Amino acid sequence: MTEKPFRLLPDVGSDNEHFWHGGADGELRFVRCQDCQVYVHPPSPVCPDCLSRNLRPEAVSGRARVHTYTLNHHPWIPGFEPPYLVAIVDIEEQEGLRLTTNLVGCEAEDVEIGMPVKVCFEEREEGIFIPLFEPDDR
Amino acid sequence: MSDGDSTLAEGKNLERQAAITGIGQSAVGRRLNADPLALTADACLEAIADAGLSRTDIDGVSTYPGAGISGAPGFTGAGTSDVQDMLRLKLNWFCGGPELPGQLGAVINACAAVATGLARHVLCFRTVWESTAQGTGRRAGIGTAGSGRFRASGFMQWTLPYGAASAAVWIAMMARRHFHEFGTTREQMAQIALNARRNAGLNPKAIYREPMDLDDYMAARMISEPFCLYDCDAPVDGSTAVIVSAVDAARDCRRPMLRVEAVGSALRGRPSWDQFDDLTTMALRDAASMLWERTDFSPADVDVAELYDGFSFIAMAWLEALGFCGKGESGPFIEGGEAIALDGEIPLNTHGGQLSAGRLHGFGLLHEAALQLWEAGGARQVPGQPRLAVAAAGGGPLGGCLLLHRED
What we know:
- The complex is a heterodimer of chains A (138) and B (408).
- By secondary structure, chain A is mostly beta strands.
- Chain A has one domain.
- Helices cover 4% and strands 39% of the residues of chain A.
- Chain A has 1 helix and 9 strands, in the order E-H-E-E-E-E-E-E-E-E.
- In chain A, a hairpin with a 6-residue loop joins strand 6 and strand 7.
- The A-B interface holds A 6-12, 16, 41-42, 67-74, 76-80, 82, 84, 86-88, 96, 98-102, 108, 113, 130 and B 139, 141, 143-145, 150-153, 155, 157-166, 168-170, 172-174, 176-177, 180, 221-226, 274-275, 277, 279.
């Protein structure tokens, strides 16, 4: 993608700014339980495993694998023009930790489920960085 | 329990104290330009009369998703207050809202209400007018783009920035995962749409009745791969109503009662479109599993299945979840279409489903299940006096189902 497409942006507040602002430091961040180390997404004030309230944002490696994907052809949002690739990716650090995202830097015919990808960021207004994923040649 | 013929442990299956006693449906069509409340009145009054009741007998109202919620234009056409006031009903119990196990969760609530004595005859309805409200006839996205000031919150913040604005995109990814794990193909999935169209040809009220073959399907424009246009249901205007009665009160009704043998309302995984543990089954896995935990019947006993097909793949997932075929085996099971045809192993979506008979949002499927059990299906009636039917609605994190038994 050479130019930035129009995007609908998230409503950023204290509960989710770690995620949407993390790209400013090149980091993909999730809330993590400091007692049992589980990552929690979407963010929650309570650890779903041990019920601890001691949670804090932490960066992950940004490495992931494609869990599933679709090449979308329908123009759902005026200005966000198809075709584009939507994927759900499995974040490497924890089984079941997933994100819905766009795959960039690849053609639809080259995408495979299980394919390694890594995070990259698209800077938007108001300090928002949209985490996207591109093929990882590791 | 007042009813003595329960075969399961007392208290385990109180829904057996509930029965479907009447059904009604307004005109259904594309861009009817009708007042959604008038459509609602048509459906509700027809259902009350169908049960042999009058409006003074109705002491409960239940609906999904209720009035006053956001959503695609025309997503909701009336709430409980609208109907209560329009018909001047005197109610002992009422309930309407979106946070339910699928669209038929409103009917499951009604079963609970009559089983616990809170009401005797509950009017359940669902009204949509998406076709008129969306004007162009195209499916609307969720959370439409507008000025740069719009900001996505809640779950939508995780999807809208990525153009994943519709369940079509989310469910397409679930279908893709199923294709990957089990070798399912578009040619197999097509049978859900082709079967629906075949049955719609026998239903005068269906929206799309002209014949369609596999070539037509494969040539259709893609929406979100692997879904093409014919994998997506058709927004319509219309209202559907059913009466849920307490079994002792149902015996006075006009039609043979359809006992609610079991319901499924479970959601045991995460309530999420993308975090649910197994995207190939979706939450309806849990609802279907619960249904069979509550009855001595088994999938082989079912005569007709009306399974949600908001997108074709969802009906495949219901076929698997309800045990009509094994997990991951819906592709081979429906291949060629014979197993799900009107005279097949398990007749599916006998009126044309939402794909060809219109997106009446779950309630159309329940309406058809009752119609078939009352052998009022006309040209599309399944043969052999069906006695047991499943109606199921919902996909993604939404799922609810009912097993109806005509006992006479």
